[in-house]
Amino acid sequence: MEEILTDVGIYVVLTGVRMPRMNSVVERWVQSCRRELLDRCLIWDEHHLRHALREYEHFYNQHRAHQALAQAAPLRTVPDPITDPERIIDLNIRRRDRLGGVLHEYSYAA
């Protein structure tokens, strides 16, 4: 089986010894990727799949809120909370669609 996978460019990575969480972390990422990306768009070919996965990876690490990180993204720092009522009223938030609107990024407008 490994020979067949290697021929098409897929390499098998075995789970480390005494590392039971290793599989669960990867399975969680695959589940998120399927639910948030692959179930919502039609993939035409390998090039399109690779592009979509690169976009999703960037979104997942830079913009997507993670509950375990207090709604922060892994590679982005949490902004300071806005406590001034005047700023909250005039808050201008912009949405940027990625992958044709499948993924959405939100940011403060300058």
From TrEMBL:
Pfam families: rve_3 (PF13683). The lineage of its organism: Bacteria, Bacillati, Actinomycetota, Actinomycetes, Streptosporangiales. It comes from the Bacteria. GO terms for molecular function: nucleic acid binding. InterPro entries: Integrase_cat-core, RNaseH-like_sf, RNaseH_sf. Residues 9-74 form the Integrase catalytic domain. One of its GO terms (biological process) is DNA integration. It comes from Nonomuraea endophytica. This is Transposase InsO family protein.
